[in-house]
């Protein structure tokens, strides 16, 4: 009789420990019905029954536990991957020739759709102006020659700015990047797996229109590259290095083209319609 009582206690305790198996993905294990043992316990007979271990089949499903309150689920690897994807910042590249109006339109998008505008050129100029920068002189030489700064420097500065704004769930307009194949490959290598690159917004504008805008801007901007010589060097670089990147995005069906020749308000109307079509919602509260 004592032996059966010990067996009952041992079996009950053992089963109560099985929920730890469920934590590894098994189906919930419930306390077994032991009523079939009652006749033997009542008669006082000594019998031996062999209990064989059961094979537990792991099921790839959400698990539910109760801690005295409503059940809650444990997220599995698939859901974690989905959450990680949702946390990735959204990136839209913004390209166009010098003076196409990229910065102006990015300002409107920032105001109306809640994007954060990051100008690759501004990041480089800020770094150049930083007296303690190890890259300042190098950047200065590249900008004066109208050449493209090495991608490792540019991507490092872009990522730093994105993190300052808030990485997870952020929405960014990367203005003036990628400007050549080296930029494109460098971004894919360093940032491609951690950002959600949506498309490239391309502002298509004639060179004579852009030159007029840049010379007018140069009167007040104080920028060393807003002069005729630097402007035309930049046009040549744009045609030889950036246009192939624009064509690359077009081949992937990831190019959104805007006519940037009209006045800025007309261009903005087209840009706003495009972003609504791409299912970006305007901010709830807009300035008057």
Automatic annotation (TrEMBL):
List of residues binding a ribonucleoside 5'-phosphate: 125, 147-149, 176-179, 223, 234
Subcellular location: Cytoplasm; Nucleus
UniProt xrefs under InterPro entries: Adenylat/UMP-CMP_kin (IPR000850), Adenylat_kinase_CS (IPR033690), P-loop_NTPase (IPR027417), UMP_CMP_kinase (IPR006266)
Catalytic function, reaction form: UMP + ATP = UDP + ADP; dCMP + ATP = dCDP + ADP; CMP + ATP = CDP + ADP
Record Gene3D superfamilies: P-loop containing nucleotide triphosphate hydrolases
EC top class, as a word: transferase
GO terms, biological process: 'de novo' pyrimidine nucleobase biosynthetic process; pyrimidine nucleotide biosynthetic process
GO terms for cellular component: cytoplasm; nucleus
Signal peptide: 1-22
Enzyme Commission number: 2.7.4.14
Stretches for region NMPbind: 119-149
UniProt similarity note: Belongs to the adenylate kinase family. UMP-CMP kinase subfamily.
The record's note on its domains: Consists of three domains, a large central CORE domain and two small peripheral domains, NMPbind and LID, which undergo movements during catalysis. The LID domain closes over the site of phosphoryl transfer upon ATP binding. Assembling and dissambling the active center during each catalytic cycle provides an effective means to prevent ATP hydrolysis.
UniProt-recorded name of the protein: UMP-CMP kinase
